Amino acid sequence: MKKEPTLLFCVGATKAGTSWLYDYLAAHDGCHIRTIKELHYFDTIETGMFKRQLRRRTQVVASLQDRMVTAGGARMAPLAVKLQDALDWRDVLAEGGENPQRYMDYLTKGHSGDKLIADISPSYGMLPATRLQKMAALAPDTRFVFLMRDPVARLWSHIRMLAQRATKALDAVPDACFALLEQVLDGAQSGMTERGDYASTVQRLWAAVEPSKLKVMFMEDMLTPQGLARLCGFLGIGYEGAAFDRPVHVGPVLAMSPAQKDRARALLRPQYEFVARHYPDIPANWRKNMGEGL
Q1: What is the pLDDT of residue 176?
Q2: What is the C-alpha R_g of the chain?
Q3: Most buried by CB count within 10 Å: which residue of 17, 227, 233, 277?
């Protein structure tokens, strides 16, 4: 009889190393991680927007099927795995409602004694405590990880990512980045700061998850051998080396002006203060920003 694996929810934060962690776990010998990183299942339950998610997944299926037609050699096998995962997940979404067993069946399909399965969806950090409580009860051993990145750096990375996605012409990206930054600093883009509202997310996690099942961690710490080893210990898997200097989904290289950075620090001051109160062993880059204009 197979032992039930640990279920990991990595619930954010956005642009705080979740893609790096996904890649690490997907390649780890002790993990069974399917090829869709962000399932968005529980936020879809909260909004009821199953049809929207189903349309998106159907488009992904069609794209993968097109790629399979021209793929050859070594590309065929990984594409086939991605296609099957996309088809399986489309079937779950097609039910149009909450079905925890189908969700768990999707995560565990193909599981062969691995210690860990995972859903890494940063949007889950926005969920209410009542939903997080239900998620915590899904498996006998369910664990949550929340990654925090220096608030100013996280916000700027998030802005650059969204601006790049929204802009077709490469030379228009810088203007789009700075225009979006101004909107955020003026309070016109609250969704951007909500994704980095560590205080609110951590307090909801405290209310919903048993302390021994929750790890709140600095991204900067995770990206070190010692920090990653601690995370692996929390997850119950062996530590395996990693390429800590390998960037994932890096946006265009741009710098805020000194004035913009000062405004961003002021806007995010409550996040620095909350984290410093509860997690005082903060990284050096956080301390630098806390000491400049805060």
Answers
A1: 92
A2: 20
A3: 17
